[in-house]
Amino acid sequence: MRTTSRHRQEEHQVITSLTSPKIARVRRLLETQNPRERAESGQFVVEGLRAVESALGSRSIDVVEILATSQWLARFPEATEISEEVAWKIADTVSPQGIFAVLSLPKQQIDLKGAKRIALFVELQDPGNAGTVIRNAHAFDFDLVIFSKGSVDPFSGKVARASAGSIASVPIEFGIELAPLIETLRPTHQLVAFDMDGEEVGSIERTLPTVVIFGNEARGLPEEIRGDERIKKISIPMPGGTESLNVASAATIAMYEISRRD
C-alpha cells in the first residue's frame, strides 16, 4: 500500500550521508563493472524519472527500493528520501534528476525457441553502444537481446543510462557461450549476421523467426560466424561512400528492417 508523503516523512529520516548502507549499496552497484559481483548481489540500479517509471511498469523486474530527493516524494511517497547533495554525489549523469531505483536482476526463464526476433551481440564492449541497442530492441519490438560471453555488463550503470529506461522493458541474456547458443537456435531460426560483404539487408526471408548477429566494435564478427556458410551474411547499402557504420547504427537499421516484416 502506498503511504502518504506526510506519513512517510514522519516515519523516515532523510539520508544525508554517503556512508549510509543504502547509499553505499547504490554506489557499489552503479560503479561495479564486474558481472559476477552484480550477479551475486542480484540487483542493479537505474537513474532518472523515465527509467524508474519504466521499471515500475515492468513485469519481469522487481523494484527493491526507490531513493529520491524531496521534489519526487509526492509522486513516489514510498521512496526513501535522500538529500540533494547525496543525489549529486552518487549520480552517474551530468544533470541528475535526483531519483534512483534499486532493481532485481530479471529471473525469467526465456523461451529461446519461441522468441521471434532476437538480436545477438558478440563481445560488444562499449556501454553506450550496449544501451543504444537495448533501446533499439525495445523500439522495434524484439523479443530478446543476447550479449555473448566477453561483452560489457548490460546491467551496469552506464548501459542502463544509455538505454533510456528500456533495460527494464526488454528481456536480456548475457555471458552466453556463443557456439552452443548458435546450435540451439539453428533448427528453429533464420541466422543472419551483419557483414560488410553480405547481401543487402532487404534480402532476409520475411516469414521466419530471425536471429541477427553483430560483431565486436573493432574486430567485427568472429571467424566461427564469418566462416559459417549456414549463417546468411547481410549488409547495409551506403551510397554516400563511407567505409562502415558503427555497430549501434547498423543494429538500428537492421532491427527496423526486420520489424517491418509483419
- The total number of structural domains is 2
**Through-space gap between termini:** 41 Å
Give the CATH H-level superfamily of the largest domain: SPOUT methyltransferase, trefoil knot domain
CATH class descriptor of the largest domain: Alpha Beta
Major sheet details: 6 strands, parallel
Written as H for each helix and E for each strand, in order along the chain, the element string is HHHEHEEHEEHEHEHEEHEH
Mean pLDDT: 88
Q: How many H/I helices?
A: 10
Shape: elongated
Number of strands: 10
Structural class: alpha/beta
Beta-strand portion reads: 15-25%
| Helical residue percent band | 25-40%
What integer value in Å does the Rg equal? Answer: 20 Å
Query: Which runs of at least 5 residues are low in confidence (pLDDT < 50)?
Result: 1-10
Q: What is the CATH architecture assignment of the largest domain?
A: 3-Layer(aba) Sandwich
Structure at a glance:
The chain has 262 residues and is of the alpha/beta class. It contains 10 helices and 10 strands. The chain folds into 2 domains: 5-104, Ribosomal protein L30/S12 (60s Ribosomal Protein L30, Chain: A, 2-Layer Sandwich), CATH 3.30.1330; 117-259, SPOUT methyltransferase, trefoil knot domain (Alpha/beta knot, 3-Layer(aba) Sandwich).
